[in-house]
């Protein structure tokens, strides 16, 4: 990118003006520098489909597994882990959207397909009576696949622009985070009320509407029509993309932070289903209603949104390693809040359950978002030109494998400690173990670079495009960036 453009961005009005006008200037700047259709796509996919939609689907799925399918906490965690499988194969979806255009477009058809798949899957779970666990999981996994495809497609758009506009990488990730957090806040706020009103299956039917908006993104997204010749040599493109990914992964600047993110997720030990069952079923627990559970998650969304704002306004220019160190330390300490709650210490010191839980949820989500925002920015800068969607999907799939491992390890821990639908005596032990192992990633911080977060991370030779490629390939890789 040319230096005058960077100077113009540094002098952008988003840095000036009243506090009320800064968000307006910020959105206007992103719309001018990128394109309004990309900004709209981020808001729809991250904010409405994933933020609002996932806010609804998380609570409804938890109640569906507990009340309709009658699963134990450890079993529920196992099946929740299975819903991560479509996200683990994200590189496949990324490879398709990067190398296999449909009707002359690389992004738009995949949005349309993803939205249709998610809508149909949610309607099946909602409308089919007495659905067996196997068929229910198949439908939920199909819906998860649709969300994963739309996610990797918008990731490709965002990552492509992060490589060509490195000074805007933090702003684009902040837009993604803000959209997801605000959408989650609204989704979680309504989730408990909707589950109480229409039941978990009714909420699944409602989720077909956000999927329809993803279809709209595919219709309205600005993307140039590619030449017919790009359909030739798809096999070679797959091979070239695979070679490029392997060559990039072997770079020290790439595999080290990837390893940190993977191991950091693996040892996070999720025991969320044990806590959810304790919230709602334990004889000596809070016995929260559906509305209360939804409101608790909404406070978590507020915490997540606060984390995005803190990063955007105060931390995005700080060294990555420093941010991750302090956030990882605080994340481990925040896990002890759950321990205080389960041991009922909060009642002894005069803190009501609901008040204590919402503080716990908000603080934990805020710290987690602050930790992952710089890592997401770093991930977007590790992607080589031409296969941005594929490589970013590969990085995210590695993270999802770590998340799957942590979910299943947490479920195994609950099973070993005999935490069931009615037995929670050893839940505090699981929470203590979780908090202790969360300290382990601090010993691996040397894997994260100390480089300026506003500069490119990849070696210069990786960023260079082959001069032997014709203009057709350049058009193929810049379908969303040209001609603002």
Walkthrough of the structure:
The protein is mostly helical and 484 residues long. The chain has helices spanning 3-10, 22-33, 36-68, 73-82, 85-88, 90-99, 108-127, 133-164, 169-206, 208-220, 234-249, 252-266, 272-281, 290-315, 320-342, 345-348, 353-381, 388-416, 427-437, 460-463, 471-477. Helix 3 (36-68) runs antiparallel to helix 8 (133-164) and helix 4 packs antiparallel against helix 18. The radius of gyration is 22 Å and the shape is globular.
Which structural class matches the secondary elements? mainly alpha
- Fraction of residues in β-strands: under 5%
Number of helices: 21
Order of helical and strand elements: HHHHHHHHHHHHHHHHHHHHH
Low-confidence stretches: 1-16, 465-484
Q: Report the span from N to C terminus.
A: 15 Å
Mean pLDDT comes to 80
Rg to the nearest angstrom?
A: 22 Å
Name the shape in a single word: globular
Number of strands: 0
Q: Helical content, roughly?
A: over 70%
Reported for the largest beta sheet, the result is: none
GO cellular component, one term: membrane
Membrane topology: Multi-pass membrane protein
InterPro entries: BT1, FBT, MFS_trans_sf
Family: Belongs to the major facilitator superfamily. Folate-biopterin transporter (TC 2.A.71) family.
């Amino acid at each position: 990118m040319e230096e005058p453009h960077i100077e113009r961005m540094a002098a952008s009005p988003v840095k000036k003006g009243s506090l009320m006008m800064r968000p307006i200037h910020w959105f206007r700047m992103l719309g001018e520098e990128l394109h309004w259709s990309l900004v709209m796509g981020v808001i729809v996919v991250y904010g409405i489909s994933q933020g609002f939609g996932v806010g609804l689907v998380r609570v409804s799925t938890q109640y569906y597994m507990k009340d309709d399918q009658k699963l134990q906490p450890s079993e529920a965690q196992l099946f929740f882990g299975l819903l991560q499988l479509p996200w683990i194969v994200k590189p496949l979806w990324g490879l398709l959207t990067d190398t296999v255009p449909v009707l002359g477009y690389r992004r738009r058809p995949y949005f349309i397909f993803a939205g249709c798949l998610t809508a149909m899957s949610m309607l099946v779970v909602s409308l089919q009576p007495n659905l067996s666990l196997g068929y229910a999981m198949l439908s939920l996994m199909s819906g998860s696949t649709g969300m994963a495809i739309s996610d990797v497609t918008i990731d490709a758009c965002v990552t492509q622009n992060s490589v060509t506009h490195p000074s805007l990488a933090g702003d684009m990730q902040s837009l993604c985070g803000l959209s997801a957090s605000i959408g989650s806040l609204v989704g979680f706020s309504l989730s408990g009320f909707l589950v109480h009103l229409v039941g978990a299956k009714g909420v699944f039917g409602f989720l077909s509407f956000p999927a329809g908006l993803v279809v709209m993104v595919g219709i309205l997204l600005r993307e140039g029509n590619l030449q017919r010749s790009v359909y030739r040599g798809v096999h070679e493109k797959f091979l070239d993309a695979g070679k490029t990914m392997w060559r990039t992964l072997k770079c020290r600047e790439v595999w080290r932070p990837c390893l940190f993110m993977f191991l950091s997720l693996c040892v996070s030990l999720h025991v969320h289903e044990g806590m959810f069952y304790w919230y709602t079923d334990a004889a000596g627990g809070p016995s929260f209603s559906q509305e209360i559970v939804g409101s608790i998650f909404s406070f978590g969304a507020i915490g997540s949104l606060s984390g995005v704002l803190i990063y955007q306004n105060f931390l995005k220019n700080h060294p990555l390693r420093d941010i991750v160190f302090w956030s990882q330390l605080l994340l481990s300490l925040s896990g002890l809040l759950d321990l205080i709650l389960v041991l009922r210490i909060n009642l002894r010191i005069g803190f009501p359950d609901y008040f204590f839980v919402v503080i716990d949820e908000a603080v934990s989500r805020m710290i987690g978002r602050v930790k992952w925002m710089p890592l997401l920015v770093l991930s977007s800068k590790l992607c080589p030109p031409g296969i941005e969607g594929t490589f970013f999907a590969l990085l995210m799939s590695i993270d999802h494998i770590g998340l799957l491992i942590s979910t299943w390890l947490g479920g195994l821990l609950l099973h070993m400690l005999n935490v069931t639908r009615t037995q929670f005596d050893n839940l505090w032990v699981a929470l203590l173990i979780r908090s202790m192992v969360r300290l382990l990633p601090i010993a691996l911080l040397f894997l994260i670079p100390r480089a300026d977060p506003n500069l490119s991370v990849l070696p210069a030779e990786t960023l260079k495009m082959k001069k032997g490629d014709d203009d057709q390939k350049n058009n193929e890789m810049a379908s969303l960036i040209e001609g603002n």
